[in-house]
Amino acid sequence: MDPLPTPRTRPGRDGLAALLAKPSAASVGLDFDGTLAPIVADPEQARAHPEAVPALAALAPKVASVAVITGRPAAVAVRYGGFAGVPGLEHLTVLGHYGAERWDAVTATVTAPPPHPGVAAARAELPGVLERAGARRGTWIEEKGRAVAVHTRRADDPQVAFEALRGPLTDLAARHGLIVEPGRLVLELRPPGMDKGVALTDHVRRTGAESVLYAGDDLGDLPAFAAVDELRAEGVPGLLVCSGSTEVTELAERADMVVDGPAGVVHLLRTLAAQLD
Hints:
single chain, 38% helix, 19% strand, 4-stranded antiparallel sheet, 12 strands
């Protein structure tokens, strides 16, 4: 049996110890892209790591809950993850659009409020905004239903295009009552009021979890990291895991444990499941 990595911080070690001591009261939260699924140039081609579902299916029956928390629509994450109808994942929850959408394996349905009208309005203006910013070449607009995202990964200079679009997209979002969520060479325009921290905290409280593990890779996961810090302050031990990359360093600096991308996350989940046998 492979040994578990040792968290580098005392709060992280306390969080892992609490999970191991009472897994039936532990909640596990996981980002999707960059954490369970490798980052790819075309987001529509993203799929969960081949060993992610088996690792989750091995771990999920041994803990109180497992939730995938993603900026994607919940149904898309379920499809790209291959989560539906998997033995062991009968109680999986997928919180899409940063928690605005909820899919659970029990009902296999998505529940959500009506979409924000500003998303459609901003989407209609996006081509003109990209044209005026000189950023049409190589950029790609991703339709996300309750949000819209602009990717620069395929531009000639992805980082330059990303920085050139920050201001114009922030202005566009503000005009339509939206906010801009920056990520790994992507800028997402979405409604305010919901983020992964809000979603994670709500999930932990719903499940009555007494410890929590959260793993993420991108700037959108920072609110979830902050939520775990707040839960720790309330007496709920937590472990923060960064799915490491060279594109985003903020999470690695905040994490209790850094693993090697989705493959490292899968290994951690699989090792945890084996430890709990």
